[in-house]
Amino acid sequence: MTIIKGYKRPDGTVGIRNHVLLMPTVICSNQVVNRIEQQVSGTVAIPHQHGCSQVGKDKERTHQVLVGMGKNPNVGAVLIISLGCEVMNAEQIRDEIKETGKPVIWLDIQDEGGTIKTIQKGIEAAKELVTQVQNAHRVDIDLSELNVGVKCGGSDATSGLCSNPSLGKASDLIVAENGTIVMGETTEIIGAEHILAEKAVSAKVLTKLYDCIRNFEAEIDRMGVDMRGGNPSPGNIEGGLSTIEEKSLGCISKAGTSPLQGVIEYAEPINGNGFYFMDSPGNDIECVSGMAAAGVHLVCFTTGVGTPTGNPIIPVIKITGNERTAKRMEDNIDIDTSAVLQGKETLEQAGKRIFDEIVSVASGSLTKAEILGHQEFSINRIGISL
Amino acid sequence: MAAYDFNSDMSSIVLNNIDNVATMLCDVKAGETITYTLEGKPQTLVVKDDIRFGHKVALRPIPKGERILKYGESIGAASEFIDRGEHVHVHNIEGIRGRGDAHTQKEVKNS
């Protein structure tokens, strides 16, 4: 049994970070949250482009991501800043986050009387929340509480050869301790879904997985385009990947060999242990943000050509199998698995190193993305702007 | 997918015995000889193009329309005849999936 050091939340969930989240309900509140973040240490803002001129499932998706970010146990308290006339319902967002028992404060720019007054009051509120979350301390937590996202971005041929299979070994170690693995990127299982489908625990899970793929390919058909050039991206192609099938076959090994317990929607809360698939785009930031909103605690992110990706509330561990990238982008890469390609290390040994890093980061060690302040956040949209 | 072993002495790797491509583990120039292991036996091949690290090389002649196999799985189809030793990439293979432009599927054999 492996022990990590985390924070126990009032609702029994466990966090591995203790952020005060500054949440704009709409793009119009971004400047206010950015200014509050600059003034109050221990806060993290999630400026985004959405929250208004949205309807139906698209509106619900933005709502669910905002609520999910607030509910994520890596967040100790939340300050919501609304404008007042937007489509998002700030009161409902506040009430849903409050179900976790964590402190939530909501300020409205129109009610407060403009930018300056809201920033002023927001700074006082944020300072109060940071003071409150200081009462939380790390305690021993069983690794089985941990939800680990697995993701790849900026892939090249080394991703499929060593960084993803190495991560797969780490995924197996996590699931062996009854932890949870979440893999996303519907785009990047196209051509490899039959291999993933063999792992489905039930016909229902299998059907849901194929439905995700069918819906996505139908959208590509509707657009009348070849995916190639968008995904695989120009960088993927430069790195040697010729088709989406080739990329996908290299991608799926990162989840390891565990049975597929379920398929969840983008940002849908994870409700169980073992291996889950989240229906989500391959876009790095949208996918990682959806994982954070679903309750993932940290993401293991493999890259071939190199990317700096981080997230405002969940640590992102960067892993490469490309020796050149490990050297050239040393400030972004946490783990180099290229020794596997040289026959100097086994996939199991590299996987164990990744597992050890997961335990260390879960217990408080900062990733390079955290040290450098990478806080990329983006909400997936599925509808038109009105 | 079958297991495979990395051997630091080989300049390329074949991920499954049924594959018709190998992946380069180093940069190589046209006319140079590369090495790989197939069914446990060391093999050599003279390449016809400059091929970079991570890119693919044809292990045998591949007729137009035939599937390209890597990891023992289809990664697409040849869009033209590819000779043994040639660079295999976007210029001579195309994806079969995610093709909203969908003109290729009719041309692909065995699909």
TrEMBL record, chain A:
It is an enzyme of class 4 (lyase). Its EC number is 4.2.1.7. GO terms for molecular function: altronate dehydratase activity. InterPro entries: GD_AH_C (IPR048332), GD_AH_second (IPR007392), UxaA_altronate/galactarate_dh (IPR052172). Residues 6-133 form the D-galactarate/Altronate dehydratase second domain. Residues 143-383 form the D-galactarate/Altronate dehydratase C-terminal domain. Belongs to the UxaA family. This is Altronate dehydratase large subunit. It comes from Neobacillus niacini.
UniProtKB/TrEMBL annotation, chain B:
The keyword Transit peptide does not apply. Residues 19-94 form the SAF domain. One of its GO terms (biological process) is D-galacturonate catabolic process. InterPro entries: SAF (IPR013974), SAF_UxaA/GarD (IPR044144), UxaA_altronate/galactarate_dh (IPR052172). The keyword Magnesium does not apply. GO terms for molecular function: altronate dehydratase activity. Keywords: Lyase. Its EC number is 4.2.1.7. This is Altronate dehydratase small subunit. It comes from Neobacillus niacini.
